[in-house]
Amino acid sequence: MRRGFLRASLRLLAVQGAWNYERMTGVGIGYAAEPLLEDLQAEDPARHAEAAVRSAEYFNSHPYLAGLAVGALARAEYDQVPGAQITRLRTALTGPLGSLGDQFFWAGLVPAVVGGMIVGQVAGYGWWALGLGLFLYNAVRLATGHWALRTGLETGARVGHAVAESWLPRSIPQVGVAAGFLVGMALPLAMVGLLDGQPSWAVLIAAGTMLVALAAGWRFSPRVTSVRFGLAVLSLTVLLAWSWP
Amino acid sequence: MPVSWAQLFGLLGWGTLVGVDLVSFPQALLSRPLIAGAGAGLVLGEPEAGFKIGLVLELFALDVLPVGAARYPDYGAGVVGAVVLASGAEPTFVLGIATLYALLFATLGGWSLQWLRRVNGRTLESAAAGLAAGDAATIRSVQYRGVAGDLVRSALLTALAVGVAFWLRPRLPLTERMELVSAVAVGTAVAAAASGAIRSAGREARLRWLAAGAGLGLLMAALR
Amino acid sequence: MAIVLYRVDDRLVHGQVVIGWGRPLGISRIVLVDDDVAGSDWEQELYRMAVPAEIELRFARVADVAAQGAAWAADPRPTILLTGDIATMAAVSHAMPVGRVNLGGLHHKPGRSERLPFIFLAEDDLRQLQQLEREGVEVTAQDLPTSSPVSLGALT
After folding, report:
1. Within an 8 Å CB–CB cutoff, is residue B67 touching chain C?
2. Do A98 and C11 touch (CB under 8 A)?
3. Is C14's CB within 8 Å of A98's CB?
4. pLDDT of residue A157 exceeding 60
5. Would the pLDDT of A195 be above 80?
6. Contact between B180 and A230 using a beta-carbon 8 Å cutoff
7. CB–CB of C42 and A161 under 8 A?
8. β-bridge mates for residue C7, sequence order
9. Residue ranges per domain, chain C?
10. Confidence of residue B171 (pLDDT cuts 50, 70, 90)
11. Which of B199, A99, B168, B221 has its CA nearest to residue C46?
């Protein structure tokens, strides 16, 4: 099982490669699990055949934490955990690993890093800010992926307890606070940076549009999304600018 | 502004890479508009245009959280096309229309992702027997076809976004009046990011930190 | 009413619930009605770690709803009541007043067909939902607050 670790890690980088509405990331999970299950083929071919079928069934979680599921489910197969119990574990991991990853990465680290990159860029450190942000983000992401697969393999069916006791749930509030602070900082700086050198009427138009857009979003959500509002208002403004005599 | 073949292939390659990065591989933050725009600007030798357009679209992207299999726009190819559209032009004249252009392609990109997910579903149906048998070759084949499909999707979307931008660029009447469009684009983009940030903040500590950050940002902006 | 969302979602507690709905609605409690999870300590531990510390996660069996539903509804804390399938939500609606049900995610299984990217239904599922509407419960499908709700009629 251990000798497949590196290949499984690399395959997990593309865990969403065959994303579909029927099995979601199930096939990606099966693809990543294949190297880990190779030894089982020699040890117990019948069990391996069952495990391979299970490995690609419906699954969805945060992609960076999928290694926890891949590792835990592979370990459970070697531990001869009954198949029905493995299926139950697989189902039960779906929501929690999605929730934890979404909170830590999508709603936490991503806006924190992006907010920091915007602040750095407006402050005049464009390439440095982007490079540092990319480096930090990917360092955390790759380290998390390595930790996830290792933890899953070590703990098997006890993976839930291992994650609950780990750094991950505890760090979500901190990264959330960082995200809130950095995005908050980025907003006025981005506006000022983008309007740098523009006449005062342009600043007033931008501020007025911002207030109208916020009010429209608040009043007409979810029908009026920011992209729909942007498309409509910008199209009208372009027509106005071109057709005004 | 003429472009070389190397720049053209560079743009197509970069747009394809940021497209597949969004969902398939390697999900390394390259698909964020800030990075996609900067990369396109670097290829075209106009980093400032790339930074600015990337920043406006990044503010739109901050409104969306890709939580739990939700459907979302794909900004990558549109941002690359928008940087092409803006290259060689006065930034304040072109920022607004380039934003509109990128938003159109981001919407198209979002639809193309849903289309790809359905194509992957049909691949799954055709591979049903192999998957039911746990055949490793079938699993690999479905996986590779999915990634290849996303590569093709991203490449076609980028080719369209870049091609139309090159065609459109000399035909756009870019006058001083277009500054109005740019100002509207900035206001809409900041509102998008602000509403996303407020929605994500909930009503606990994070909301207070968001307000504190905004206060510090305002102070820094005033001191600039 | 303190229960601000009655949601059917076969992934139970995940990102769309905790972040997508939880944050804008200012949720401070989730009631998960599921007989299997209510009887399984290790599954409860998994779901607990998926929820931030400021949100209380309560596990209940269908049989608990009749006795505790009124108290959940009277509690001023904004709450999401979550079930993993339609039958459980129907049982909830028979045990306590439910005005509106949100279909948040019912995924592919043999016999089900796609109605929306996040809603797959078999004919029997549809019949159960139509029965719910006949009983006065409004049923809409909506994965996130930022997407538009789709009426049950549009899912047939």
Report:
1. yes
2. yes
3. yes
4. yes
5. yes
6. no
7. yes
8. C82, C102
9. 3-155
10. very high
11. A99
With bands split at pLDDT 50, 70 and 90, how would you rate the model's confidence at A177? very high
Per-domain residue ranges of chain A = 2-177, 197-245
Q: Which domain holds residue B14?
A: 5-223
Q: Is A50 part of the contact surface with chain C (CB cutoff 8 Å)?
A: no
Mean pLDDT of chain C, nearest integer: 94
Quote the CA–CA distance of C152 and C136 in Å, as a whole number. 13
Report residue B203's pLDDT band, with 50, 70 and 90 as the boundaries.
confident
B145 touches chain C (CB under 8 A): no
Nearest to C12 among A24, A60, A95 (CB): A95
pLDDT digits (tens, 9 = 90+) for A203-240: 999 999 999 999 998 888 888 889 999 999 999 999 99
| Residue C25, C-beta contacts closer than 8 angstroms, at least 6 positions apart | C4, C5, C78, C80, C145
Q: Give C107's contacts in chain A (Cβ within 8 Å).
A: 21-22, 24, 58
Q: What is the pLDDT of residue A222?
A: 81
Burial environment of residue C58 by CB neighbours within 10 A (0 to 12, 13 to 18, 19 or more): middle
Q: What is the pLDDT of residues B44-94, one digit of tens each?
A: 999 999 999 999 999 999 998 777 667 789 999 999 999 999 999 998 999
Q: Give the integer Cα–Cα distance in Å for C60 and C49.
A: 17
Give pLDDT < 50 ranges for chain C: none
Instruction: Say yes or no for a CB contact (<8 Å) between A222 and C146.
Output: yes
- In this complex, which of C18, C45, C147 lies closest to A103 when CB atoms are compared? C18
Residues of chain A neighbouring B29 (CB-CB closer than 8 A): 110, 113, 133-134, 137-138
Tell me if chain C has a CB within 8 Å of the CB of A99.
yes
CB contact under 8 A, C15 and A98: yes
What is the C-alpha separation between C119 and C147, in angstroms, rounded? Answer: 14
How many domains is chain B built from?
1
Arithmetic mean of pLDDT over chain B: 94
pLDDT at B152: 98
Task: Kindly report the three-state secondary structure assignment for every residue of chain B.
Answer: CCCCHHHHHHHHHHHHHHHHHHHCCCCCCCCCHHHHHHHHHHHHCCHHHHHHHHHHHHHHHCCCCCHHHCCCCCCHHHHHHHHHHHCCCCHHHHHHHHHHHHHHHHHHHHHHHHHHHHHHHHHHHHCHHHHHCCCHHHHHHHHHHHHHHHHHHHHHHHHHHHHHHHHHHHHCCCCCCHHHHHHHHHHHHHHHHHHHHHHHHCCCHHHHHHHHHHHHHHHHHHHC
Q: What pLDDT sits at residue B137?
A: 96
Distance from the B38 Cα atom to the nearest Cα atom in chain A, whole angstroms: 8
B143 touches chain C (CB under 8 A): no
CA–CA separation, C21 vs C23, rounded Å? Answer: 6
Radius of gyration (Cα) for chain A, nearest Å? Answer: 24
Q: Tokens for A125?
A: 């450190």
CATH topology classification for C3-155: Fructose Permease (3.40.35)
ipTM: 0.95
Nearest by CB to B70, which of C17, C23, C144?
C144
- Answer yes or no: do B67 and C144 touch at CB < 8 A: yes
Q: Does A14 touch chain B (CB under 8 A)?
A: yes
